Amino acid sequence: MTLPSTTSDRAPCTTPDRAPCTTVNGVGGYLPERIVTNDELASRIDTSDAWIRERTGITQRHIASPHETATFMGEQAARRALDAAGVGPDAVDAIIVGTSTPDQGFPATAVAIQGALGVTRGFAFDLSAACSGFVYGVSIADAMIRAGQCHGVLVIGTEVYSRILNWQDRGTCVLFGDGAGAVFLRANTEHADRGIISTHIHADGRYGDILYIDGATGQTAKPQHLVMNGREVFRHAVGKLAGAVDEALAANHLTHNDIDWLVPHQANLRIIDAMGKRLNLRPEQVVITVDRHANTSAASIPLALDEAVRDGRIQPGHLILIEALGGGLTWGSALIRF
Ligand code: COA
User: For position 191, what pLDDT does the model report?
Assistant: First the structure.
């Protein structure tokens, strides 16, 4: 028997007699004020600017101050996304937050952000998919909008990895940064040519031991630190992300020539370059923030989208491919017509 896959293959968007599709109506981001350069790290641990740049493309990262929590940063990004969409919090009836660094076990960060925004209707929840959290969130929001369960959804990625890094482990602490990004998604019954075209999400728990947070709520007195086998993650990232981008194109009978922008998860410039080459894109068609933000996990794609929309690179009508891989392993892609 052939089971339905996690892939949602659909005809692009809507006609008046079909269910609504989902458009991206606003994008926002927030980065902590404090910037930590590679040289500053090299003054504290045995590393160098040259090593970090050469292996990852990273030159600096933003690091949160005590008041810059996942909730605080997520709220700022959400407000900017709503402003960009030209709507107020009353347009929101669902909030989905991808985060691996919530302020507390519960209430969920999404509910805390809902409260901070003054939204009192609809629903809000966090999802745990590590660096794929934003792609997962977009996929779930799109499915719920198409099902008529909500109409105006904030999908937020907000992360303070600085609080779960082992700052003595040079193999991981140089790679990550803090920040938040958000999109405001809306049910759309008017513009048949715009919106989320398809999403494709995956997980494979066999690889849970190559990228994880050690310790958790309920495991007594164990500090929580990110642990990673960098080489293994790199190997899986290149193979699985290649599969995810091919899958997105094939599901919609598109080719790389149709793509205007690749907005990838920002983990490592070498992985991003490999994806750009696979899609035969010109380097300037790939949105890159990893050099200045490092890896902000679930926040990295909406932060990159925010930058490219605000500086005018991404224009209405452009076709965007997003993709991410994270601990789990989890991974996925989505095609969106802006
Ligand atoms: N500065 C200087 N040297 C470092 C270092 C640092 N920050 N971190 C590791 N090294 C050293 C290692 O100790 C090792 O030294 P040795 O040969 O004397 O033992 C050497 O550099 C090579 O280490 P290795 O881990 O094999 O390097 P690498 O080429 O695989 O690069 C990563 C390391 C982490 C940059 C790379 O594996 C990577 O990008 N992986 C994917 C990570 C990722 O994307 N994670 C997030 C997914 S969401």
Answer: 72
Q: Is the pLDDT of residue 313 over 90?
A: yes
For the record, the structure tokens of 260 come out as: 């205007």
In this structure, is residue 50 part of a structural domain?
A: yes
Ligand 1 center to 230 CA (angstroms): 6
Q: How far is the CA of 338 from the centre of ligand 1 (A)?
A: 36
In contact, 78 and 91? CB cutoff 8 Å: no
Structure tokens at 114: 């809902």
Which residue's CA is minimally distant from atom 10 of ligand 1?
Answer: 171
The verdict on residue 6 lying in a domain is no
Q: Tell the residue nearest (CA) to atom 29 of ligand 1.
A: 55
Which of 171, 188, 205 is the C-terminal boundary of a domain?
A: 188
Percent of the chain with pLDDT over 90: 87
Identify the CATH number of the domain in which residue 89 sits. 3.40.47.10
DSSP state of 286: B
Does 125 contact ligand 1 (Cβ within 6 A)?
Answer: no
Determine, yes or no, domain membership for 2: no
Three-class DSSP category at 185: strand
Return the DSSP state at 309.
H
Are 32 and 167 members of one domain? yes
Taking 50 as the threshold, does the pLDDT of residue 13 lie above it? no
232 ligand 1 Cβ < 6 A:
no
**Catalytic, out of 200, 236, 265, 293:** 265
Active site annotation includes 265: yes
Query: In the chain, which ranges are continuous DSSP H helix?
Result: 38-42, 49-56, 70-85, 109-117, 133-146, 170-173, 230-251, 269-278, 290-293, 300-310
Most confident of 6-20, 131-145, 269-283: 131-145
Spacing, Cα 269 to ligand 1 middle (Å): 13
Q: What digits encode the pLDDT tens for the residues 190-209?
A: 777 899 999 999 999 999 99
pTM above 0.90, yes or no: yes
Ligand 1 midpoint to CA 171 (Å): 5
What's the domain range around 177? Answer: 21-188
Catalytic residue among 13, 21, 131, 150: 131
